[in-house]
Design goal:
- The complex is a heterodimer of chains A (355) and B (411).
- Chain A has 355 residues and is of the alpha+beta class.
- Helix content of chain A is 39%, strand content 17%.
- Chain A has two domains: 199 residues, no CATH class; 128 residues.
- In chain A, the strands form two sheets. A seven-stranded mixed β-sheet of chain A has the order 1-2-3-4-5-6-7.
- By secondary structure, chain B is an alpha+beta fold.
- Chain B is built from nine helices and 21 strands.
- In chain B, strands 1, 2, 3, 4, 5, 6, 7, 8, 9, 10 and 11 form an eleven-stranded antiparallel β-sheet that branches. In chain B, strands 14, 15, 16, 17, 18, 19, 20 and 21 form an eight-stranded antiparallel β-sheet that branches. In chain B, strands 12-13 form a two-stranded antiparallel ribbon.
- In chain B, helix 4 packs across helix 9 and helix 6 crosses helix 9.
- Classes of the chains: A alpha+beta (355), B alpha+beta (411).
- At the A-B interface, strand 1, helix 8, helix 10 and helix 12 of A face strand 12, strand 13, strand 17, strand 18 and strand 19 of B.
Chain lengths: 355, 411
């Protein structure tokens, strides 16, 4: 399979989770004492740092946010992690606001002291940071070169760069490996003296698909990159709606809201709910919910919609059995979920209007 | 039994004590009267309590067809209810905690088992309390063997390699009695055995049996001897308890102990496993989110045969049959790996699964009952792999049960 940003992100998440010792996964961050501090935590850069970068002509993002932020409380170490498929150069084309080098320069300028103070950690002066770029296999050397180049430019601009290292993600027949770039300095024990092939973090059988179970099925900034990611998100939406309705049918009156469906489908929905990029997804899920509720109404279920909340009333045990029968039917399970077409993404009708 | 005669919990207990004593005498004389059921308790679980002090019994039973009437005029944890179903008087129901309840009945086995099973199936509010072979093994090793070495103990083992076949018969799930089990002439592995022997004798051969033939790890029933009385109480893997001793109160006391063990284990499992996004507010008023939780991992060593793995996926998900009652669309990643973002149909809660011939990895979103783990372990041991190793995050399930039983962890 081709690596995708979401695959890389989910792989990194699994490496912070507790799993059986000597199992098929080796959570190298977890075993070294790192915990997950945040997903996509954005923070504003200090004014003087922005000014110095500006004067030196270094492309710079004012409010960067790494994909993940890990924390080692005992060692007072913060590990911002960025996941990228490919390497990138240090120069952003003129006018390009989104070039990776802007984010990289800003993250390189983020010291442990600044991050710890920003997040309100105790004794911020004791903290250090190390920026980690996890990139597709064979891209780590070029990425490391870019990080070193940007670090040198920052020093010239009187900005102290933080430690940084690039890590290649290699998918081989027998497993997924992480291999630091030769000059990388990474404060993770397993990665400090790795075998020449890298550290195997997931064991695979010959021919096994390397995808891990997706803890995070979606990122509004990148969207699904392949068929698996589309299917995974569709099934998360389907199971969220099924669970919310199916588990409440024993009460004669109950509500289910669109926000509950979204929150159940994507556990970190709250973080993204107000973003413009999430609006299309919200509209598409609303259209799907409306379609299913229309089907339930044909079964004589009394459902009233108000804004994005729908109220089921007069649910009898017999009706509950019927609805559950439908929700477990092949027709429902196999029913199409369109979260991607323009027609549903641009559908702004409320549930009430949509009846 | 006409439960209308009883006006208090105490009087009901007195009646049940007398009833247990009479039945035990009949058992000893081998003259158990026809239609005279032994006392049975069914330990049931409802949804996580969300901090509530007591359970709302009428709301939980809404839609099940059971009618309950409180005794003593109480409607709280100390309440005791008479239960009627469509066939008349059924027995008593008592909340044991904010999350568990017991139903006591003297009806004969088939009538009582069917009534409880159909009630549990009729609602998303109830599930059985599932006692896996691992749990029985802990009770056996740390209570029965050291404390009652000379007592007679009964262990029943049952493993049916049902997924070696493509067919599933719903009757396979019914666990009424050996003589009533459906036998069909299909060739696949099955092991059913009952041992009644003194504890210290069983201790001599059980470890070897389990080493040589793993179905001896799939304990279906364990009889915990009654204290200072002949007989004991048969605890079944699906939460049923059959009283084969002369007192009801002693048996109920054992039920309460097992409930405490079960409840605490379940709570710790949920604390460790629940997958959720947690929001943190930052200094500038911004927000960050993190994900907490851990997977349940079931490992199969040796791996399941490919045909067994595929039959399991097809039966459970494509046909919606089998004992696990899981639902979802398998996303196939080759012939040896599937991902399912699905539902546990007992309580209609979400569950995410990666399944291969070597393992199952499960992620339980917040709100999904820890009971799901006990049910999976119990049924996987019975139908798929009796030697399955189970981890809650990085902790062995058997170690967790043992630690809770011996008070080494609190939850």
């Amino acid at each position: 399979m081709e690596q995708t940003p979401l695959f890389q992100l989910n792989l990194m998440l699994w490496l912070v989770w507790p799993v059986p010792p000597a199992g098929i996964m080796r959570p190298i961050f977890r075993e070294d004492g790192f915990d997950l501090r945040g997903i996509g935590p954005a923070f504003e850069m200090p004014l003087e740092v922005r000014a110095r970068a500006g004067v030196a002509g270094i492309p710079f993002k004012e409010r960067p946010g790494p994909d993940l932020l890990l924390e080692h409380h005992q060692r007072r170490t913060l590990l911002p992690i960025e996941c990228k498929i490919s390497s990138f150069g240090p120069d952003a084309p003129p006018g390009s606001k989104k070039h990776q080098s802007r984010q990289a320069a800003a993250l390189l300028s983020t010291t442990g002291l600044y991050l710890a103070d920003y997040f309100g950690l105790p004794a911020p002066a004791d903290w250090r940071a190390c920026l980690l770029y996890a990139v597709g296999g064979s891209q780590e050397a070029a990425t490391q070169t870019t990080l070193e180049d940007l670090s040198a430019r920052l020093q010239t601009a009187h900005i102290d760069p933080t430690l940084a290292g690039a890590l290649g993600i290699y998918i081989r027949d027998d497993g997924i490996y992480l291999k630091p770039a030769p000059a990388a300095s990474v404060p993770v024990t397993a990665l400090q003296t790795p075998p020449s092939a890298g550290v195997r973090v997931v064991e695979l059988e010959d021919g096994e698909d390397p995808r891990v179970l997706y803890l995070l099925p979606w990122d509004p900034n990148i969207g699904p990159a392949d068929e698996y990611e589309r299917r995974a998100l569709e099934e998360r939406v389907r199971s969220a709606l099924t669970s919310l309705i199916g588990s409440r049918l024993d009460a004669p009156i109950f509500d289910v809201s669109l926000d509950e469906v979204l929150q159940a489908a994507v556990e970190v929905w709250e973080m993204w709910r107000d973003r413009q990029a999430a609006a299309g997804f919200r509209n598409a899920v609303r259209a799907y919910v409306r379609r299913i509720l229309t089907r339930l109404r044909k079964m004589e279920v009394d459902i009233q919609a108000h804004q994005d909340t729908f109220t089921f009333t007069g649910v009898t045990p017999q009706l509950a059995r019927q609805v559950r029968g439908y929700l477990t039917s092949v027709a429902f399970r196999r029913g199409e979920i369109d979260l991607w077409s323009e027609a549903v993404q641009l559908d702004f009708s409320s549930l009430a209007e949509g009846w | 039994m006409n439960t209308l005669h009883f006006t208090s919990r105490e009087k009901a207990f007195d009646f049940l004590d007398d009833y247990a004593s009479q039945r035990k005498e009949e058992i000893d004389r081998r003259q158990l009267g026809k239609g005279q059921g032994l006392i049975k308790s069914y330990l049931l679980e409802t949804l996580p309590d969300n901090g509530r002090a007591s359970m709302d019994i009428p709301a939980i039973l809404h839609g099940t067809g059971w009618q309950v009437t409180p005794m003593d005029g109480r409607n709280d944890d100390a309440a005791f209810y008479r239960v009627r179903d469509s066939k008349g008087e059924f027995g008593f129901l008592e909340p044991l905690s904010a999350r568990h309840l017991a139903v006591h009945s003297t009806k004969e086995t088939v009538r009582a088992d069917n009534a409880v099973r159909s009630t549990v199936r009729a609602t998303a509010q109830l599930d059985f309390a599932w006692l896996a072979g691992t749990t029985f093994q802990t009770i056996w090793q740390h209570l029965i063997l050291p404390q009652m070495p000379d007592r007679f103990v009964t262990l029943k083992f049952k493993h049916q390699a049902r997924f070696e076949d493509t067919l599933w018969d719903e009757r396979d799930e019914e666990d009424i009695d050996d003589e009533e089990d459906f036998e069909e002439p299909i060739e696949r592995r099955a092991s059913t055995l009952a041992i009644t022997e003194r504890s210290n004798q069983i201790a001599r051969f059980l470890p070897q049996l389990q080493t040589y033939h793993s179905p001896f790890k799939a304990i279906r029933t364990l009889r915990i001897p009654a204290a200072e009385e002949r007989g004991g109480y048969d605890f079944w893997s699906w939460g049923k308890v059959t009283y084969r001793a002369p007192t009801f109160r002693d048996g109920r006391s054992q039920v309460l102990s097992i409930t405490r063990l079960y409840e605490q284990t379940t709570r710790i499992i949920e604390e460790r496993l629940w997958f959720l996004g947690e929001k943190t507010t930052l200094r500038d008023g911004g927000e960050s989110m993190t994900l907490t939780g851990a997977p349940v991992t079931l490992t199969f060593d040796p791996p399941l045969p490919l045909s067994t793995f595929q039959n399991f996926i097809t039966t459970t998900f494509e046909r919606g049959q089998g004992p696990l009652r899981l639902w979802g669309n398998p996303i196939y990643l080759g012939e040896r790996k599937v991902h399912i973002y699905g539902i546990d149909l007992h309580l209609w809660k979400r569950i995410y699964m990666e399944i291969t011939p070597r393992r199952m990895m499960l992620v339980l979103p917040q709100g999904t009952c820890g009971n799901t783990v006990h049910r999976l372990v119990t049924n996987v041991q019975r139908y798929l792999d009796p030697a399955v190793e189970v981890f809650i995050g990085d902790v062995r399930y058997s170690d967790l049960v043992e630690d809770v039983f011996l008070g080494r962890v609190t939850g």
